[in-house]
Amino acid sequence: MKTRLIPLVLVVILSAPHSNGQDNKVRSGIGISIISYGASIYFPIIAGRNFRIEPELGILGLPDRLLPPVQQESPGLDKLGIGLFYAIPLRGSNNLYFGPRVARFASSMGSLFWSDVGSEPVRLGYLIGPSAGVELGSLHFTVGFELGLDYVKVWSFNEKIYPPGTAPTTSQDAITRSGLLGEGRLSVHFYF
After folding, report:
1. In a domain, 5, yes or no
2. CA distances (Å), origin 184, targets 24, 31, 42, 107, 134
C-alpha cells in the first residue's frame, strides 16, 4: 500500500506546475518547525502558483491521555509525514495555505517502515487532519504559523503496565488509544 503511494505523489508533484497555466516555476527548500508536541525538519516544494507539498521528518511527543496508563516515561516518537496544500498567494512571497497533513510515527526509526513487533516495547501510530497557515517573508526566507486539528491513533505493544497494588507486568495485548490533538506550528523556511 505504501509503495503504491510513492508514484501517485510523484505524479501529483510533476503535474501540478502544468495544471494552472500561470506560474510553472517549482521552488524547493528546507524548513524547521517547532510544533506543540515536538519538532520537525521538512522540505517544502512549491509546485506552481497554488500547490505545495511538504514531506516531513520529526520527533513527536504525545500527551499522556494518548499513551498507556501509568506510563513511567514518554520518549519521543519518530515521525514521517507529508502535507498537501492549496496556497493562496498574497503580496510578494506571502501565502495563505490549507490542506491535509498525514504522518506515521513509531518509537524507532526502523518501525516507521515495517510493523514487526518483537519483545521490546514498541509504539506505532498515525495522525491525519486539516491544517491551515500563513507564510510571511521574502523569496528565499519566510516565517510561518500554522494551526491543525489531528486525529491520532496509537498502538502500544509490550508496554510495562503498573496495576494498582501489584508488581509491574508486560502487557500481552496491544493497548490502543486515539483522540483529537490540536497543533500549533511555528516554522522558518529557506528556499533555494
Report:
1. no
2. 31, 15, 16, 22, 12
C-alpha cell at 21: 497555466
Q: What contacts 24+ positions apart, CB below 8 Å, involve 35-43?
A: 35/183, 35/184, 35/185, 35/186, 36/181, 36/182, 36/183, 36/184, 36/185, 37/61, 37/62, 37/63, 37/181, 37/183, 38/76, 38/79, 40/79, 40/81, 42/83, 42/187
125: domain CATH number is: 2.40.160
In a domain, 42, yes or no: yes
Residue 71 lies in a domain: yes
Residues 6+ apart with CB under 8 A from 72: 160, 162
Q: Tens-of-pLDDT digits for all 192 residues of the chain?
A: 444 555 555 545 544 444 444 456 788 999 999 988 889 999 999 888 899 999 999 998 877 677 665 455 556 788 999 999 999 999 888 999 999 999 998 876 666 666 666 667 778 889 999 999 999 999 899 999 999 999 999 888 777 777 777 777 777 777 788 899 898 999 999 998
The answer to whether residue 44 sits within a structural domain is yes
Measured in degrees and rounded to the nearest 5, phi and psi for residue 118 equal -95, -135
CA neighbours within 13 Å on the CB side: how many for 84?
10
Q: Is the pTM of this model over 0.90?
A: no
